[in-house]
Amino acid sequence: MKSLISRSFIQKIIKSEIKKDYFKKIHTRFPPYPNGYLHIGHAKSICLNFGIARKYHGKCNLRIDDTNPIEKRSFERYVHSIKKDIKWLGFNWDGEVRYASNYQEMFYKYAVELIQKKLAYVDHLDQNSIKEYRGNFNHIGKNSPYRDRTVEENLELFKKMKSGLYEEGRICLRAKIDMYSPYMILRDPVLYRIKKNVEKSDDLRCKKFKIYPTYDFAHCISDALEGITHSLCTLEFRENRRLYDWILNNISIVHKPKQYEFSRLNLEYTVMSKRKLSQLIDLKMVESWEDPRLPTISGMRRRGYTAESIRMFCQKIGVTKQESRIEMKVLESCVRKDLDLFSQRMMGVLNPVLLIIENMKQDEEHNLIIFRHPKNRKMGVKFLKFNNRLYVDKFDFLKKDGDLDPLLFEKMFRLRHAYTIEINRIERDKQKNISKIYCQYKKKPMDQFFDKSKRARKIIHWVSAKYGIRAEFRIFNHLFTEPYPGENFLKSFNSNSMLLKQGIVEPNLLDFQKGEPFQLEREGYFCIDSTSDYSRNSKLIINQTVSLKRTKDE
Ligand code: ATP
Ligand code: MG
Q: How far is the CA of 265 from the centre of ligand 2 (A)?
Protein backbone atom coordinates (compact mmCIF):
# COMPACT_ATOMS: atom_id res chain seq x y z
CA MET A 1 0.00 0.00 0.00
CA LYS A 2 1.44 3.36 -0.99
CA SER A 3 1.54 5.83 1.83
CA LEU A 4 0.51 9.45 1.85
CA ILE A 5 3.76 10.56 3.35
CA SER A 6 6.12 9.86 0.49
CA ARG A 7 6.28 13.50 -0.56
CA SER A 8 5.40 15.24 2.67
CA PHE A 9 7.46 17.78 4.60
CA ILE A 10 6.96 15.56 7.63
CA GLN A 11 8.86 12.80 5.96
CA LYS A 12 11.79 15.14 5.32
CA ILE A 13 11.86 16.00 9.01
CA ILE A 14 11.72 12.37 10.04
CA LYS A 15 14.46 11.38 7.62
CA SER A 16 16.84 13.98 9.00
CA GLU A 17 15.93 13.03 12.57
CA ILE A 18 16.66 9.39 11.83
CA LYS A 19 20.09 10.39 10.56
CA LYS A 20 20.74 12.29 13.76
CA ASP A 21 19.49 9.36 15.84
CA TYR A 22 16.87 11.49 17.63
CA PHE A 23 14.66 8.58 18.56
CA LYS A 24 14.77 4.80 18.54
CA LYS A 25 11.39 4.10 17.03
CA ILE A 26 8.84 6.44 15.58
CA HIS A 27 5.61 6.57 17.54
CA THR A 28 2.55 8.48 16.35
CA ARG A 29 -1.05 8.57 17.51
CA PHE A 30 -4.52 9.25 16.18
CA PRO A 31 -6.55 11.01 18.90
CA PRO A 32 -10.23 11.39 17.95
CA TYR A 33 -12.71 13.18 20.13
CA PRO A 34 -15.65 10.75 20.36
CA ASN A 35 -18.45 13.14 19.45
CA GLY A 36 -19.36 11.60 16.13
CA TYR A 37 -18.30 9.30 13.33
CA LEU A 38 -15.04 9.79 11.47
CA HIS A 39 -15.04 11.69 8.18
CA ILE A 40 -12.71 11.91 5.23
CA GLY A 41 -10.69 14.65 6.97
CA HIS A 42 -9.94 12.12 9.68
CA ALA A 43 -8.98 9.65 6.94
CA LYS A 44 -6.23 12.06 5.92
CA SER A 45 -4.93 12.13 9.48
CA ILE A 46 -5.29 8.33 9.81
CA CYS A 47 -3.38 7.66 6.58
CA LEU A 48 -0.68 10.07 7.75
CA ASN A 49 -0.26 8.82 11.32
CA PHE A 50 -0.64 5.11 10.66
CA GLY A 51 1.16 5.44 7.32
CA ILE A 52 4.25 6.99 8.93
CA ALA A 53 4.32 4.32 11.62
CA ARG A 54 4.08 1.61 8.98
CA LYS A 55 6.70 3.13 6.72
CA TYR A 56 9.29 3.52 9.49
CA HIS A 57 8.41 0.31 11.31
CA GLY A 58 7.17 2.26 14.27
CA LYS A 59 3.92 2.31 16.20
CA CYS A 60 0.71 4.28 16.07
CA ASN A 61 -1.70 4.50 19.00
CA LEU A 62 -5.41 5.00 18.85
CA ARG A 63 -6.27 7.32 21.69
CA ILE A 64 -9.84 8.28 22.47
CA ASP A 65 -9.77 11.84 23.71
CA ASP A 66 -12.37 11.38 26.45
CA THR A 67 -11.32 13.73 29.21
CA ASN A 68 -14.60 15.59 28.93
CA PRO A 69 -17.94 14.28 30.17
CA ILE A 70 -19.61 12.38 27.34
CA GLU A 71 -22.92 10.60 27.23
CA LYS A 72 -22.24 6.89 27.74
CA ARG A 73 -24.46 5.47 25.06
CA SER A 74 -23.29 7.66 22.21
CA PHE A 75 -19.72 7.33 23.49
CA GLU A 76 -19.83 3.58 23.03
CA ARG A 77 -21.40 3.87 19.62
CA TYR A 78 -18.86 6.42 18.43
CA VAL A 79 -15.85 4.49 19.74
CA HIS A 80 -17.15 1.35 18.06
CA SER A 81 -17.51 3.18 14.74
CA ILE A 82 -14.06 4.80 15.07
CA LYS A 83 -12.41 1.41 15.54
CA LYS A 84 -14.38 -0.12 12.69
CA ASP A 85 -13.51 2.70 10.27
CA ILE A 86 -9.78 2.63 11.03
CA LYS A 87 -9.67 -1.12 10.45
CA TRP A 88 -11.71 -0.81 7.31
CA LEU A 89 -9.23 1.76 6.00
CA GLY A 90 -6.60 -0.92 6.38
CA PHE A 91 -4.83 0.16 9.55
CA ASN A 92 -4.39 -1.17 13.05
CA TRP A 93 -3.28 0.53 16.23
CA ASP A 94 -0.55 -0.61 18.50
CA GLY A 95 -1.74 -2.56 21.54
CA GLU A 96 -4.98 -1.68 23.29
CA VAL A 97 -7.09 1.35 22.49
CA ARG A 98 -5.92 4.15 24.84
CA TYR A 99 -8.32 6.39 26.71
CA ALA A 100 -7.07 9.78 27.83
CA SER A 101 -9.47 9.56 30.80
CA ASN A 102 -7.23 6.83 32.21
CA TYR A 103 -4.53 9.45 32.72
CA GLN A 104 -6.64 11.66 35.02
CA GLU A 105 -4.50 10.92 38.07
CA MET A 106 -1.37 11.88 36.16
CA PHE A 107 -2.91 15.11 34.87
CA TYR A 108 -3.80 15.99 38.44
CA LYS A 109 -0.33 15.13 39.68
CA TYR A 110 1.32 17.36 37.07
CA ALA A 111 -1.08 20.20 37.82
CA VAL A 112 -0.06 19.98 41.48
CA GLU A 113 3.56 20.03 40.40
CA LEU A 114 3.00 23.24 38.45
CA ILE A 115 1.31 24.80 41.49
CA GLN A 116 4.24 23.78 43.65
CA LYS A 117 6.62 25.35 41.18
CA LYS A 118 4.55 28.56 41.31
CA LEU A 119 3.65 27.99 37.68
CA ALA A 120 -0.08 27.57 38.17
CA TYR A 121 -2.72 29.21 40.32
CA VAL A 122 -6.37 28.90 41.17
CA ASP A 123 -8.31 31.84 39.76
CA HIS A 124 -11.64 33.13 41.02
CA LEU A 125 -12.34 35.39 38.07
CA ASP A 126 -15.43 34.40 36.16
CA GLN A 127 -15.16 33.42 32.51
CA ASN A 128 -16.05 36.85 31.16
CA SER A 129 -13.51 38.58 33.34
CA ILE A 130 -10.85 36.08 32.33
CA LYS A 131 -11.57 36.96 28.74
CA GLU A 132 -11.50 40.66 29.44
CA TYR A 133 -8.27 40.47 31.45
CA ARG A 134 -6.63 38.49 28.68
CA GLY A 135 -6.72 41.45 26.28
CA ASN A 136 -6.41 40.86 22.56
CA PHE A 137 -3.92 41.06 19.72
CA ASN A 138 -3.70 44.83 20.06
CA HIS A 139 -3.82 45.11 23.83
CA ILE A 140 -1.71 43.30 26.37
CA GLY A 141 -3.49 41.49 29.16
CA LYS A 142 -3.47 42.27 32.86
CA ASN A 143 -2.84 40.01 35.81
CA SER A 144 -5.68 38.45 37.71
CA PRO A 145 -5.94 39.70 41.32
CA TYR A 146 -5.67 36.04 42.36
CA ARG A 147 -2.44 35.42 40.49
CA ASP A 148 -0.13 35.74 43.45
CA ARG A 149 -1.75 33.37 45.88
CA THR A 150 0.63 31.29 47.92
CA VAL A 151 1.43 27.73 46.94
CA GLU A 152 -0.40 26.46 50.03
CA GLU A 153 -3.50 28.46 49.27
CA ASN A 154 -3.50 27.24 45.67
CA LEU A 155 -3.03 23.62 46.68
CA GLU A 156 -5.87 23.88 49.16
CA LEU A 157 -8.22 25.48 46.65
CA PHE A 158 -7.32 23.02 43.91
CA LYS A 159 -8.06 20.14 46.26
CA LYS A 160 -11.45 21.67 47.02
CA MET A 161 -12.09 22.08 43.30
CA LYS A 162 -11.38 18.41 42.85
CA SER A 163 -13.76 17.40 45.59
CA GLY A 164 -16.60 19.27 43.93
CA LEU A 165 -17.05 22.19 46.31
CA TYR A 166 -17.43 24.77 43.57
CA GLU A 167 -19.87 25.62 40.83
CA GLU A 168 -18.89 25.59 37.16
CA GLY A 169 -17.43 28.83 35.85
CA ARG A 170 -16.59 30.28 39.29
CA ILE A 171 -13.12 28.91 39.66
CA CYS A 172 -10.39 27.36 37.51
CA LEU A 173 -6.73 26.47 37.47
CA ARG A 174 -4.53 28.59 35.22
CA ALA A 175 -0.94 28.35 34.13
CA LYS A 176 1.13 31.29 35.30
CA ILE A 177 2.99 32.24 32.16
CA ASP A 178 2.82 35.80 30.88
CA MET A 179 -0.18 38.10 30.57
CA TYR A 180 1.90 40.41 28.36
CA SER A 181 2.93 37.73 25.91
CA PRO A 182 2.39 38.52 22.22
CA TYR A 183 0.99 35.00 21.99
CA MET A 184 -2.54 34.93 23.34
CA ILE A 185 -2.21 31.25 24.13
CA LEU A 186 0.49 32.04 26.72
CA ARG A 187 -1.60 34.60 28.63
CA ASP A 188 -2.21 32.34 31.60
CA PRO A 189 -4.23 29.65 29.82
CA VAL A 190 -6.79 27.64 31.77
CA LEU A 191 -5.59 24.12 32.64
CA TYR A 192 -8.51 22.76 34.63
CA ARG A 193 -12.16 23.69 34.97
CA ILE A 194 -15.35 22.48 36.58
CA LYS A 195 -18.18 21.06 34.49
CA LYS A 196 -21.52 21.02 36.20
CA ASN A 197 -23.54 19.09 33.62
CA VAL A 198 -21.79 16.04 35.05
CA GLU A 199 -24.11 16.22 38.02
CA LYS A 200 -27.27 16.32 35.94
CA SER A 201 -27.14 13.35 33.59
CA ASP A 202 -27.07 9.80 34.85
CA ASP A 203 -25.74 8.47 31.64
CA LEU A 204 -22.27 9.95 31.68
CA ARG A 205 -18.80 8.55 31.65
CA CYS A 206 -16.14 10.16 33.83
CA LYS A 207 -18.90 11.03 36.28
CA LYS A 208 -16.65 10.53 39.24
CA PHE A 209 -14.60 13.57 38.24
CA LYS A 210 -15.55 17.08 39.23
CA ILE A 211 -12.72 18.84 37.41
CA TYR A 212 -11.65 18.41 33.84
CA PRO A 213 -8.34 19.25 32.19
CA THR A 214 -8.43 21.43 29.07
CA TYR A 215 -7.46 19.91 25.75
CA ASP A 216 -4.11 21.71 25.74
CA PHE A 217 -3.17 20.41 29.16
CA ALA A 218 -4.31 16.83 28.63
CA HIS A 219 -3.09 16.39 25.09
CA CYS A 220 0.63 17.01 25.51
CA ILE A 221 0.78 14.97 28.71
CA SER A 222 -1.08 12.07 27.07
CA ASP A 223 1.39 12.18 24.18
CA ALA A 224 4.32 12.17 26.58
CA LEU A 225 2.93 9.36 28.74
CA GLU A 226 2.48 7.19 25.67
CA GLY A 227 5.99 7.86 24.39
CA ILE A 228 4.76 9.58 21.24
CA THR A 229 7.63 10.97 19.16
CA HIS A 230 5.66 12.92 16.55
CA SER A 231 2.39 14.53 17.49
CA LEU A 232 0.80 15.48 14.18
CA CYS A 233 -2.13 17.85 14.21
CA THR A 234 -3.85 20.38 12.00
CA LEU A 235 -2.67 23.95 11.46
CA GLU A 236 -5.10 25.64 13.82
CA PHE A 237 -3.02 24.24 16.69
CA ARG A 238 0.09 26.03 15.49
CA GLU A 239 0.04 28.58 18.26
CA ASN A 240 -0.94 25.97 20.84
CA ARG A 241 2.44 24.37 20.23
CA ARG A 242 3.97 27.06 22.46
CA LEU A 243 1.81 25.89 25.32
CA TYR A 244 2.39 22.23 24.43
CA ASP A 245 6.12 22.77 24.81
CA TRP A 246 5.77 25.03 27.86
CA ILE A 247 3.81 22.42 29.79
CA LEU A 248 6.14 19.56 28.94
CA ASN A 249 9.21 21.63 29.73
CA ASN A 250 7.89 22.59 33.15
CA ILE A 251 6.75 19.23 34.48
CA SER A 252 8.97 16.36 35.51
CA ILE A 253 8.18 14.17 32.57
CA VAL A 254 11.17 12.70 30.81
CA HIS A 255 9.82 12.04 27.37
CA LYS A 256 9.22 15.14 25.22
CA PRO A 257 7.20 14.57 22.06
CA LYS A 258 7.21 17.18 19.32
CA GLN A 259 4.18 18.65 17.64
CA TYR A 260 4.02 19.20 13.88
CA GLU A 261 1.14 20.80 12.05
CA PHE A 262 -0.29 20.13 8.60
CA SER A 263 -3.22 21.64 6.74
CA ARG A 264 -6.61 20.11 7.25
CA LEU A 265 -8.54 18.67 4.37
CA ASN A 266 -11.28 20.90 2.99
CA LEU A 267 -13.51 19.31 0.42
CA GLU A 268 -15.96 21.28 -1.67
CA TYR A 269 -19.77 20.95 -1.57
CA THR A 270 -19.73 19.26 1.81
CA VAL A 271 -19.09 20.03 5.47
CA MET A 272 -16.68 18.16 7.62
CA SER A 273 -17.12 19.33 11.16
CA LYS A 274 -18.80 16.72 13.35
CA ARG A 275 -20.81 19.48 14.95
CA LYS A 276 -22.30 20.44 11.60
CA LEU A 277 -22.79 16.82 10.53
CA SER A 278 -24.66 16.00 13.71
CA GLN A 279 -26.89 19.02 13.15
CA LEU A 280 -27.88 17.65 9.74
CA ILE A 281 -28.69 14.34 11.40
CA ASP A 282 -30.62 15.86 14.32
CA LEU A 283 -32.68 17.95 11.91
CA LYS A 284 -33.35 14.80 9.87
CA MET A 285 -32.01 16.44 6.74
CA VAL A 286 -29.98 13.28 6.27
CA GLU A 287 -30.72 9.83 7.61
CA SER A 288 -27.84 9.11 9.98
CA TRP A 289 -24.05 9.25 10.27
CA GLU A 290 -24.07 6.50 7.64
CA ASP A 291 -26.06 8.45 5.09
CA PRO A 292 -24.32 7.86 1.73
CA ARG A 293 -24.34 11.59 1.00
CA LEU A 294 -22.17 12.42 3.99
CA PRO A 295 -18.38 12.62 3.87
CA THR A 296 -18.21 10.22 6.80
CA ILE A 297 -16.16 7.08 6.27
CA SER A 298 -19.21 4.96 7.06
CA GLY A 299 -21.37 6.98 4.66
CA MET A 300 -18.82 6.61 1.90
CA ARG A 301 -18.49 2.89 2.58
CA ARG A 302 -22.26 2.49 2.33
CA ARG A 303 -22.25 4.47 -0.88
CA GLY A 304 -19.72 2.05 -2.34
CA TYR A 305 -16.43 3.94 -2.02
CA THR A 306 -13.57 1.54 -1.38
CA ALA A 307 -10.88 1.85 1.29
CA GLU A 308 -8.29 1.79 -1.48
CA SER A 309 -9.92 4.74 -3.24
CA ILE A 310 -9.89 6.79 -0.05
CA ARG A 311 -6.24 5.93 0.61
CA MET A 312 -5.45 6.78 -3.02
CA PHE A 313 -7.16 10.15 -2.56
CA CYS A 314 -5.19 10.90 0.61
CA GLN A 315 -2.01 9.98 -1.21
CA LYS A 316 -2.92 12.26 -4.09
CA ILE A 317 -3.67 15.37 -2.04
CA GLY A 318 -0.49 14.97 0.02
CA VAL A 319 0.43 16.59 3.31
CA THR A 320 1.40 20.26 3.26
CA LYS A 321 1.23 23.37 5.36
CA GLN A 322 -0.84 25.26 2.78
CA GLU A 323 -4.56 25.54 3.31
CA SER A 324 -6.24 24.21 0.21
CA ARG A 325 -9.67 23.35 -1.08
CA ILE A 326 -9.99 20.09 -2.86
CA GLU A 327 -12.52 19.56 -5.63
CA MET A 328 -14.92 16.67 -5.25
CA LYS A 329 -13.91 15.38 -8.68
CA VAL A 330 -10.45 14.53 -7.33
CA LEU A 331 -12.03 12.11 -4.87
CA GLU A 332 -14.47 10.80 -7.47
CA SER A 333 -11.73 10.06 -9.97
CA CYS A 334 -9.92 7.95 -7.34
CA VAL A 335 -13.14 6.05 -6.70
CA ARG A 336 -13.65 5.38 -10.43
CA LYS A 337 -10.06 4.35 -10.92
CA ASP A 338 -10.23 1.74 -8.21
CA LEU A 339 -13.72 0.45 -9.02
CA ASP A 340 -12.93 0.08 -12.70
CA LEU A 341 -10.37 -2.60 -11.92
CA PHE A 342 -12.67 -5.15 -10.37
CA SER A 343 -16.32 -4.13 -10.75
CA GLN A 344 -18.42 -6.52 -12.76
CA ARG A 345 -20.26 -4.97 -15.69
CA MET A 346 -24.00 -5.26 -15.35
CA MET A 347 -27.00 -3.74 -17.06
CA GLY A 348 -29.72 -1.72 -15.42
CA VAL A 349 -32.19 0.80 -16.77
CA LEU A 350 -32.85 3.90 -14.69
CA ASN A 351 -35.63 5.41 -16.84
CA PRO A 352 -37.37 2.37 -18.29
CA VAL A 353 -39.53 2.31 -21.36
CA LEU A 354 -40.74 -0.87 -23.03
CA LEU A 355 -39.13 -1.92 -26.30
CA ILE A 356 -41.01 -4.51 -28.33
CA ILE A 357 -39.23 -6.45 -31.02
CA GLU A 358 -41.87 -7.10 -33.64
CA ASN A 359 -39.97 -9.61 -35.71
CA MET A 360 -39.28 -11.88 -32.79
CA LYS A 361 -41.73 -14.46 -31.48
CA GLN A 362 -43.11 -14.05 -28.01
CA ASP A 363 -41.77 -17.38 -26.78
CA GLU A 364 -38.43 -17.04 -28.51
CA GLU A 365 -35.47 -16.74 -26.17
CA HIS A 366 -31.75 -16.37 -26.79
CA ASN A 367 -29.11 -17.22 -24.22
CA LEU A 368 -26.22 -14.78 -24.29
CA ILE A 369 -22.84 -15.40 -22.71
CA ILE A 370 -21.05 -12.24 -21.65
CA PHE A 371 -17.72 -11.48 -19.97
CA ARG A 372 -18.18 -10.09 -16.48
CA HIS A 373 -15.34 -7.63 -17.04
CA PRO A 374 -14.15 -6.57 -20.50
CA LYS A 375 -10.56 -5.99 -19.40
CA ASN A 376 -10.30 -8.76 -16.87
CA ARG A 377 -11.54 -11.93 -18.48
CA LYS A 378 -10.34 -14.00 -15.56
CA MET A 379 -13.46 -12.79 -13.82
CA GLY A 380 -15.43 -15.21 -15.98
CA VAL A 381 -18.71 -14.99 -17.79
CA LYS A 382 -22.37 -14.47 -16.98
CA PHE A 383 -25.56 -15.50 -18.75
CA LEU A 384 -28.35 -13.28 -19.95
CA LYS A 385 -31.64 -14.12 -21.58
CA PHE A 386 -32.77 -12.07 -24.54
CA ASN A 387 -36.40 -11.98 -25.64
CA ASN A 388 -38.86 -9.79 -27.50
CA ARG A 389 -39.81 -7.41 -24.72
CA LEU A 390 -37.01 -5.37 -23.18
CA TYR A 391 -36.65 -2.28 -21.08
CA VAL A 392 -34.43 0.44 -22.44
CA ASP A 393 -33.72 3.97 -21.21
CA LYS A 394 -36.10 6.54 -22.65
CA PHE A 395 -33.41 9.21 -22.62
CA ASP A 396 -31.60 7.29 -25.34
CA PHE A 397 -34.42 8.32 -27.66
CA LEU A 398 -34.78 11.92 -26.61
CA LYS A 399 -32.80 15.02 -27.36
CA LYS A 400 -31.24 16.99 -24.50
CA ASP A 401 -34.29 19.29 -24.31
CA GLY A 402 -36.60 16.29 -23.79
CA ASP A 403 -38.14 16.26 -27.28
CA LEU A 404 -38.15 13.12 -29.33
CA ASP A 405 -34.97 12.70 -31.34
CA PRO A 406 -36.07 13.54 -34.92
CA LEU A 407 -33.39 11.27 -36.36
CA LEU A 408 -34.71 8.33 -34.42
CA PHE A 409 -35.92 6.44 -37.47
CA GLU A 410 -32.80 7.18 -39.43
CA LYS A 411 -30.55 5.74 -36.79
CA MET A 412 -29.73 2.24 -35.91
CA PHE A 413 -29.15 1.15 -32.39
CA ARG A 414 -27.10 -1.71 -31.12
CA LEU A 415 -28.36 -3.44 -28.03
CA ARG A 416 -25.32 -3.97 -25.83
CA HIS A 417 -23.99 -7.54 -26.01
CA ALA A 418 -26.81 -8.43 -28.42
CA TYR A 419 -28.34 -7.36 -31.73
CA THR A 420 -28.89 -4.33 -33.87
CA ILE A 421 -32.36 -2.81 -34.03
CA GLU A 422 -34.22 -0.35 -36.19
CA ILE A 423 -37.12 1.63 -34.75
CA ASN A 424 -40.48 1.09 -36.44
CA ARG A 425 -42.74 3.39 -34.43
CA ILE A 426 -43.15 5.03 -31.09
CA GLU A 427 -46.24 5.11 -28.94
CA ARG A 428 -46.82 8.06 -26.68
CA ASP A 429 -49.25 8.60 -23.83
CA LYS A 430 -51.57 11.58 -23.31
CA GLN A 431 -48.77 13.59 -21.72
CA LYS A 432 -46.69 12.92 -24.81
CA ASN A 433 -44.28 10.71 -22.90
CA ILE A 434 -42.88 7.73 -24.74
CA SER A 435 -44.77 4.68 -23.57
CA LYS A 436 -43.67 1.97 -26.01
CA ILE A 437 -41.11 1.59 -28.71
CA TYR A 438 -41.62 -0.91 -31.53
CA CYS A 439 -38.64 -2.11 -33.49
CA GLN A 440 -37.25 -4.92 -35.57
CA TYR A 441 -33.99 -6.64 -34.88
CA LYS A 442 -31.55 -8.32 -37.16
CA LYS A 443 -29.77 -11.49 -36.43
CA LYS A 444 -27.66 -11.50 -39.53
CA PRO A 445 -24.77 -9.16 -40.34
CA MET A 446 -25.85 -5.64 -41.03
CA ASP A 447 -25.24 -5.58 -44.78
CA GLN A 448 -27.61 -8.40 -45.58
CA PHE A 449 -30.67 -6.99 -44.00
CA PHE A 450 -30.55 -3.29 -43.41
CA ASP A 451 -30.26 -0.21 -45.49
CA LYS A 452 -26.51 0.36 -45.76
CA SER A 453 -26.82 4.11 -45.47
CA LYS A 454 -27.89 3.74 -41.89
CA ARG A 455 -25.18 3.16 -39.34
CA ALA A 456 -25.47 1.72 -35.88
CA ARG A 457 -24.76 4.95 -34.14
CA LYS A 458 -25.54 4.21 -30.61
CA ILE A 459 -25.02 1.27 -28.33
CA ILE A 460 -27.74 1.13 -25.74
CA HIS A 461 -28.21 -0.97 -22.63
CA TRP A 462 -31.30 -3.04 -21.91
CA VAL A 463 -32.89 -5.46 -19.48
CA SER A 464 -35.28 -8.26 -20.34
CA ALA A 465 -38.80 -7.26 -19.30
CA LYS A 466 -39.58 -10.86 -18.46
CA TYR A 467 -36.59 -11.51 -16.22
CA GLY A 468 -35.62 -8.04 -15.02
CA ILE A 469 -35.68 -7.20 -11.32
CA ARG A 470 -37.30 -4.06 -9.99
CA ALA A 471 -34.86 -1.63 -8.44
CA GLU A 472 -35.03 1.66 -6.62
CA PHE A 473 -32.01 3.75 -7.49
CA ARG A 474 -30.66 6.37 -5.17
CA ILE A 475 -28.83 8.94 -7.19
CA PHE A 476 -26.67 11.28 -5.14
CA ASN A 477 -25.73 14.85 -5.84
CA HIS A 478 -23.71 17.35 -3.84
CA LEU A 479 -24.95 17.79 -0.30
CA PHE A 480 -24.83 21.57 -0.67
CA THR A 481 -25.47 24.00 -3.47
CA GLU A 482 -22.46 26.12 -2.43
CA PRO A 483 -18.90 24.82 -2.74
CA TYR A 484 -18.08 26.15 0.74
CA PRO A 485 -21.27 26.38 2.76
CA GLY A 486 -19.74 28.11 5.83
CA GLU A 487 -21.67 28.70 9.03
CA ASN A 488 -24.96 29.16 7.17
CA PHE A 489 -24.62 25.67 5.78
CA LEU A 490 -28.22 24.67 6.52
CA LYS A 491 -29.44 27.29 4.07
CA SER A 492 -27.48 25.83 1.18
CA PHE A 493 -28.54 22.24 1.79
CA ASN A 494 -29.28 20.68 -1.60
CA SER A 495 -32.83 19.38 -1.52
CA ASN A 496 -31.96 17.32 -4.60
CA SER A 497 -28.98 15.70 -2.94
CA MET A 498 -30.77 12.37 -3.22
CA LEU A 499 -33.07 11.48 -6.12
CA LEU A 500 -35.03 8.26 -6.25
CA LYS A 501 -35.64 6.47 -9.51
CA GLN A 502 -37.67 3.37 -10.09
CA GLY A 503 -35.87 1.20 -12.60
CA ILE A 504 -35.05 -2.32 -13.56
CA VAL A 505 -31.87 -4.40 -13.47
CA GLU A 506 -30.65 -7.69 -14.87
CA PRO A 507 -31.43 -10.71 -12.68
CA ASN A 508 -27.74 -11.53 -12.10
CA LEU A 509 -27.74 -8.72 -9.55
CA LEU A 510 -29.65 -10.95 -7.16
CA ASP A 511 -26.37 -12.81 -6.62
CA PHE A 512 -24.62 -9.69 -5.35
CA GLN A 513 -23.83 -9.03 -1.71
CA LYS A 514 -24.91 -5.77 -0.14
CA GLY A 515 -22.17 -3.21 -0.68
CA GLU A 516 -20.42 -5.21 -3.39
CA PRO A 517 -19.57 -2.80 -6.20
CA PHE A 518 -20.64 -3.21 -9.82
CA GLN A 519 -20.79 -1.04 -12.86
CA LEU A 520 -24.06 -0.46 -14.63
CA GLU A 521 -22.91 -0.05 -18.18
CA ARG A 522 -23.19 3.51 -19.49
CA GLU A 523 -24.48 4.71 -16.11
CA GLY A 524 -21.90 4.46 -13.37
CA TYR A 525 -20.78 2.47 -10.37
CA PHE A 526 -23.39 1.23 -7.94
CA CYS A 527 -23.89 -1.13 -5.02
CA ILE A 528 -26.85 -2.65 -3.22
CA ASP A 529 -27.68 -0.62 -0.12
CA SER A 530 -27.17 -2.17 3.31
CA THR A 531 -30.89 -1.72 4.06
CA SER A 532 -32.07 -3.44 0.86
CA ASP A 533 -34.41 -6.35 1.56
CA TYR A 534 -35.41 -8.02 -1.69
CA SER A 535 -37.34 -10.84 -0.12
CA ARG A 536 -39.64 -8.35 1.58
CA ASN A 537 -40.05 -5.63 -1.00
CA SER A 538 -39.35 -7.57 -4.20
CA LYS A 539 -37.13 -4.75 -5.32
CA LEU A 540 -33.48 -3.95 -4.79
CA ILE A 541 -32.35 -0.68 -3.23
CA ILE A 542 -29.32 0.43 -5.19
CA ASN A 543 -26.95 3.31 -4.36
CA GLN A 544 -25.11 5.19 -7.02
CA THR A 545 -21.46 5.27 -5.95
CA VAL A 546 -20.20 7.54 -8.70
CA SER A 547 -21.28 8.31 -12.25
CA LEU A 548 -19.18 7.28 -15.22
CA LYS A 549 -17.13 9.91 -16.83
CA ARG A 550 -18.92 10.77 -20.05
CA THR A 551 -17.22 9.27 -23.04
CA LYS A 552 -16.91 11.10 -26.34
CA ASP A 553 -19.57 9.14 -28.18
CA GLU A 554 -22.28 9.94 -25.67
P1 ATP B 1 -14.19 18.11 13.47
O2 ATP B 1 -14.01 19.54 13.85
O3 ATP B 1 -14.33 17.88 12.03
O4 ATP B 1 -15.22 17.44 14.23
P5 ATP B 1 -11.96 17.53 15.06
O6 ATP B 1 -10.67 18.15 14.71
O7 ATP B 1 -12.74 18.12 16.15
O8 ATP B 1 -12.81 17.42 13.75
P9 ATP B 1 -11.01 15.16 16.29
O10 ATP B 1 -11.82 13.97 16.55
O11 ATP B 1 -10.54 15.93 17.45
O12 ATP B 1 -11.86 16.01 15.31
O13 ATP B 1 -9.81 14.83 15.31
C14 ATP B 1 -8.97 13.72 15.42
C15 ATP B 1 -7.78 13.97 14.54
O16 ATP B 1 -8.18 14.12 13.19
C17 ATP B 1 -7.07 15.23 14.94
O18 ATP B 1 -5.69 14.96 15.03
C19 ATP B 1 -7.38 16.20 13.83
O20 ATP B 1 -6.32 17.06 13.62
C21 ATP B 1 -7.63 15.29 12.64
N22 ATP B 1 -8.57 15.92 11.72
C23 ATP B 1 -9.84 16.29 11.95
N24 ATP B 1 -10.38 16.89 10.88
C25 ATP B 1 -9.44 16.88 9.92
C26 ATP B 1 -9.37 17.36 8.56
N27 ATP B 1 -10.40 17.97 7.98
N28 ATP B 1 -8.22 17.17 7.88
C29 ATP B 1 -7.18 16.56 8.44
N30 ATP B 1 -7.17 16.10 9.70
C31 ATP B 1 -8.27 16.26 10.45
MG1 MG C 1 -13.60 20.06 16.06
A: 13
